[in-house]
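sorry for the late reply, my laptop died twice this morning and i had to redo everyting from scratch. anyway the thing you sent over, i finally got around to it. pasting the sequence first so we're on the same page, its 223 residues, then the predicted structure underneath. double check i copied it right bc i was rushing
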Amino acid sequence: MFPNPDFSTRRIHAGLLALAAAAALAACSTGPSRQDVRQGGQTAAQSAAGDRAARANATPTVTVAKPTPPAETDAIVRVLAYAERVRVMPPAELGQEVARLGDASTPSDQLRLSLVLSQLHQLPDLIRAQELLARVLGNADAEAQALHPLARLLASRFGEQRRLEEQLEKQNQQVRDVQRKLDQTNERLEALKAIERSLASRPPAAPASSPAPATNRGRSAAP
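ok and here's the structure:
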C-alpha cells in the first residue's frame, strides 16, 4: 500500500519551517541586530559631539601679568627722559653736568652720571660709568631695585661700548707708533741731507806743491 503524497509534502514543509525557525533563533543569539548596531553608533556620535561642545564652551584660563608698580615705572621714565637730553648735549655742557652731579650718592644720580660719562667717549670715563652701574646693581634699597632693569640694560651696552673703545685705543696707539717711527726716519734723512749740503758747500782744497829739485850732490866742490 503506497503512502499518501500530500501527507509527505506536508511533513517536508513542516521540517523546512522548523529549520528556518532554528536558524533565526541562532542568528539572534550570536550577535546584535543591524538596528541595535545603528542605534549604538548614533549614541556614541552624540556623546562625542557633546564632549566637543563642552570643551568649546569651557572658559579659557587667562594668566594675568603682574602689574609694574607705578613708582618703578616713574623712576625708569625719568631716567630715560634724562638720557635723551644728555644724548644731544655738547661736550661743554656734559662737563658741567658731571661737575653738578658730583659724587652722585643716590641711585638715580649714579645712573644719570653714568649716562653722562658714557657720552664723553673716553675709556677712563666709561670705566667709571660701569663702576657706578655696579653700585646701583649692588644696592638692595627700594629706589635702587626699581632701577635694576635699566641698570642691567645699560651695563650690557656699556660693556660693548668699552670693548669698541679699547679696540679704537689700540688702533690709535698703533698709528701713533707708526707716526713716531716715520718722524724718526724723516729726522735721520734730513740729517743726512744736511751733511751732504755742508760737504757740497765747502771750497775745493788747494793742490799740494811739488817738492823742489834736489841739488846735484855729485858736483864737486869749488876749488
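The longest helix spans residues 142-201.
thats about all i looked at so far, will dig more tmrw
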